[in-house]
């Protein structure tokens, strides 16, 4: 009796999901489809040095490209802050500019690249006062 597992039986659903198998493409949710499309767009951008958000290590300097999901003004007691939720299909990162009330061009739905140091908080990765590049809106 052989102890080797049949290649089509062990982990076939995980393998199909990871490879974007035929059935997974038809049964995935709208959110999964949008995330896959965004990941393809980020990887096809041809920009060197970009890292997927879920692959970033806290404490390192990173460059990530993603879609702005939300822009929030956080009024503090002495200084305001603009917070942006950036999503690249693999995960989200909060981007914070301290001392700002608004940054022209940064609106929900806009694609941008940010360069900065990722904080060591692994539950809510954050980049403070990064350099950024606004990308053309899809049209």
Please give a structural write-up.
- The chain is an alpha+beta fold and 139 residues long.
- The chain has helices at residues 12-19, 22-27, 30-44; strands spanning 61-75, 80-87, 92-98, 111-117, 126-128, 131-134.
- It has two domains: 12-44, no CATH class; 53-134, OB fold (Dihydrolipoamide Acetyltransferase, E2P), CATH 2.40.50.140.
- 14% of the residues are buried.
- It is globular and about 50 Å long.
- Strands 5-3-2-1-4-6 form a six-stranded mixed beta sheet, with no helix packed on it.
- The longest helix is centred in the N-terminal third of the chain and has 15 residues, at 30-44.
Give a brief description.
The protein has helices spanning 12-19, 22-27, 30-44; strands spanning 61-75, 80-87, 92-98, 111-117, 126-128, 131-134.
Taking all Cα atoms into account, the compactness measure Rg is 19 Å
Which structural class fits the helix and strand makeup? alpha+beta
According to CATH, the fold-level topology of the largest domain is OB fold (Dihydrolipoamide Acetyltransferase, E2P)
CATH architecture assignment of the largest domain:
Beta Barrel
Number of helical regions: 3
Nearest-integer average pLDDT: 76
Q: Report the portion of residues in β strands.
A: 25-35%
Distance between the termini: 60 Å
- The first-level CATH class of the largest domain is given as Mainly Beta
Question: Secondary structure elements and their pairing?
Answer:
Layout: H1 12-19, H2 22-27, H3 30-44, E1 61-75, E2 80-87, E3 92-98, E4 111-117, E5 126-128, E6 131-134
Parallel strand pairs: 3-5
Antiparallel strand pairs: 1-2, 1-4, 2-3, 4-6
């Amino acid at each position: 009796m052989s102890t080797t597992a049949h290649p089509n039986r062990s982990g076939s659903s995980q393998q199909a999901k990871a490879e974007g198998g035929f059935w997974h493409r038809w049964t995935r949710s709208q959110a999964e489809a949008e995330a896959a499309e965004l990941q393809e767009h980020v990887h096809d951008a041809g920009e060197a040095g970009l890292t997927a958000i879920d692959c970033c290590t806290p404490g390192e300097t990173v460059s990530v490209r993603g879609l702005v999901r939300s822009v929030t003004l956080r009024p503090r007691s002495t200084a305001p802050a603009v917070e942006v939720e950036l999503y690249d299909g693999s995960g989200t990162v909060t981007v914070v500019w301290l001392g700002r009330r608004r940054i022209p061009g940064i609106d929900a739905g806009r694609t941008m690249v940010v360069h900065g140091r990722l904080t060591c908080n692994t539950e809510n990765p954050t980049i403070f006062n990064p350099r950024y590049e606004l990308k053309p809106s899809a049209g």
